[in-house]
UniProtKB/TrEMBL annotation:
Signal peptide positions on this chain: none
Protein's cellular compartments: Cytoplasm
Family: Belongs to the Deltex family.
Name of the protein: E3 ubiquitin-protein ligase
Native source species: Leptobrachium leishanense
Superkingdom, taxonomy of origin: Eukaryota
Length: 235
């Protein structure tokens, strides 16, 4: 991976210029596409004009280019863009997961509902620390509750695929994030980031346990919605 990319370059890489914009609304600023971007006062750009409109190359959704730039600048500026209309990801999305450790173990015992195989045991360890510039409140401490966190997958073909995808998601800093815990209400703390894990092996007290026949398919879909797919495993 190269060095940091200019935000304008990222926007230009994934948007095609639209010469004659329609009178539809830009869903980022809610102004019509044939008028200036609602972000033209707050977003400085030497190379993108207030009325410039662009179309995302794969999904075809259309926005003001300055609105896209404002949206990008508001995120963690990792060189990727996500369409705000359909969530298509351009480039490789990464998160803001703080540093930590992911470790894998094997257990011979089976999970409820997966009697024909053993179990993969994942352990995540993250310590409290100080927030970096990409975090919600840079310079402020963050807490890390309930670590190490233990998670379980069936040790079969699909479970091992999910394990590989989780490792990729971990390397892209997507498993955890820093924010408000919906369980405890605590802010500036390490929380799960929309990729569900099974944290109970033999019980299902929290609802995050087994049996759950749809779990592997559901988590594969959650990973895909963050851009983590089988394709990425071969790169
Ligand atoms: P959160 O409450 O903000 O929820 C984020 C997502 O994680 C949601 O989708 C939610 O459904 C899911 N989630 C909530 N509780 C979960 C659980 N026990 N196992 C798996 N997924 C869960 O997320 P959070 O604050 O990171 O975690 C929720 C709470 O669970 C926290 O209070 C945490 O300390 C606790 N927890 C403890 C352990 C432990 O081993 N002691 C392990 C996991 C979670
Ligand atoms: Zn706009
Ligand atoms: Zn789209």
């Amino acid at each position: 991976k190269g060095g940091p990319v200019e935000p304008e370059q990222v926007v230009k890489k994934y948007l095609e210029n639209v010469e004659k914009p329609s009178d539809e609304d830009c869903i980022i600023c809610m102004e019509t596409l044939n008028t200036a971007s609602g972000y033209s006062d707050s977003t400085e750009s030497k190379t993108i004009k207030p009325a410039a409109v662009g179309k995302l190359k794969t999904c075809g959704h259309v926005f003001h280019q300055l609105c896209m730039l404002a949206m990008y600048n508001n995120g963690n500026k990792d060189g990727s863009l996500q369409c705000p209309a359909c969530k298509t990801i351009y480039g490789e999305k990464t998160g803001i997961q703080p540093k930590g450790k992911m470790e894998i173990f094997r257990i011979s015992q089976s999970l409820p509902g997966n009697q024909d195989c053993g179990t993969i045991h994942i352990m995540y360890m993250i310590n409290p620390g100080i927030q970096s510039p990409e975090h919600p409140t840079p310079g402020k401490p963050y807490t890390a509750r309930g670590f190490p966190r233990h998670c379980y997958l069936p040790d079969n073909t699909k479970g091992r695929l999910v394990l590989d995808l989780l490792k990729l998601a971990w390397s892209r800093r997507l498993i955890f994030t820093i924010g408000v815990s919906s369980t405890t209400g605590e802010s500036d703390t390490v929380v799960w980031n929309e990729i569900h894990h099974k944290t109970e092996m033999n019980s299902n007290i929290t609802g995050h346990g087994y049996p759950d026949p749809n779990y592997l398919d559901n988590v594969i879909a959650e990973l895909a919605s963050q851009g983590v797919t089988e394709e990425g495993l071969n790169m």
